[in-house]
Amino acid sequence: MATRATGPTAQVWLPPGFTLTGGGAYDMGRGTSNTLTACYPTRNQSGVYTGWAAAGRDFGLADPVPLAVYAVGIRITRDGEPVKIEQQVFSATSALVSDPGVSVKLGAGWIGTGGGAQDNYASPVNGNMLTASYPLIGADGNICGWSASGREHDAADQARVTAFVIGIRTGPEVALEARIVSNTSLLTGYPSALVAVPHGNAVVAGGGALVGESGRNTMLSASCPIISSQDGRLTGWFAARKVQKSAPPSGITAYGVLLEAA
């Protein structure tokens, strides 16, 4: 977790033996000025994606806040022995514009488990923030890619947005499948939504969030796993957004990506 700051950044790394499948972040400020600009997978010194990075940014009014960052990973064993899991991260970057947006496709043969986004803003003082980072769903109901978008707020501020999607695959000894659950909030001034994991053997592998209104004063402030206080399990996904000034009521959709044995 990042300490309280006006532009908080933080990274978190999985322990050895785990494969990164997703991650999230929660900008913990109560004000309206500090929101997410980045929430994406990051590589270790060996070039392997084993961690998660996030950043926030305030504008207009100083709003120093802590930033919680989460990395989600899995480890599979069979008869007491670890099962090899391959991982591949695909990414795409938008053009430099005021309202950047981009989608990236998942490569054939990979199981989509999560994704993220980074708003690479041009100006250090204005206001281009993330507004969406969510899975794209194919005709078969599985993840086929990831989409991300940002938007300038109050002042001109062009940016390039990068979208990331994580894919995994295993050998023939273990078959996995991923499915998506989602929930959309009511239309309110400061909407939030959570989606719970259905009962069963599925585990949370990742998630995302999509704002439900196209006004200029909407920003993504949370897209992160829900953690049980009893046993530390991931039990769902939470998403929230902030508004600037007098934006109309709007909604947000939280997506949870569940992984289970086929």
Topology:
Elements: E1 2-5, E2 9-13, E3 19-27, E4 34-43, E5 49-58, E6 65-74, E7 77-78, E8 81-82, E9 85-93, E10 101-105, E11 111-121, E12 128-137, E13 143-152, E14 159-170, E15 176-184, E16 192-196, E17 203-211, E18 218-227, E19 234-243, E20 252-261
Antiparallel strand pairs: 1-6, 2-5, 3-6, 3-18, 4-5, 4-11, 7-8, 9-14, 10-13, 11-14, 12-13, 12-17, 15-20, 16-19, 17-20, 18-19
Describe this protein's structure:
It contains no helices and 20 strands. It has strands spanning 2-5, 9-13, 19-27, 34-43, 49-58, 65-74, 77-78, 81-82, 85-93, 101-105, 111-121, 128-137, 143-152, 159-170, 176-184, 192-196, 203-211, 218-227, 234-243, 252-261. The strands form four sheets. The protein has a six-stranded antiparallel β-sheet with strand order 1-6-3-18-19-16, with no helix packed on it. Strands 2-5-4-11-14-9 form a six-stranded antiparallel β-sheet, with no helix packed on it. Strands 10-13-12-17-20-15 form a six-stranded antiparallel β-sheet, with no helix packed on it. The protein is globular and about 55 Å long. The relative contact order is 0.19.
